[in-house]
Amino acid sequence: MSAGVYHLTSRFGECSYLWSRCHTGLDFAAPTGTTISAVAAGTVTEAGYAGAYGNRTIVTLEDGTELWYCHQNSFGVSVGDTVRPGDLIGYVGSTGNVTGPHLHLEVRPGAGDPVDPFQALLVHGIQP
pTM for the full model? Predict the structure, then answer.
């Protein structure tokens, strides 16, 4: 998403009645239909509905890290597609367990437990 279009509304590790456990990613509120861009190069390994995560795209990086793009209104990629930073992933929506349209971005090294993506975004020149 382009700077100025979104704002960070929830950070990794926050605890709230909104979630069954502490928050596992970063939430970026934006209008429905706002484009979502890839933050790193990888291969799309999943694109479909995933319960509380709503419409979710998973991009798997070369080292096995998974990037989850959740709550999309619609998809811009399909399983098997390769993406580079800046490529279209999909469009902001409000599917799944949400209070309004936003992107939930989650990072899972080795497809394991989620880690805070904030510093990694800064290192790659993305200001959350």
Answer: 0.87
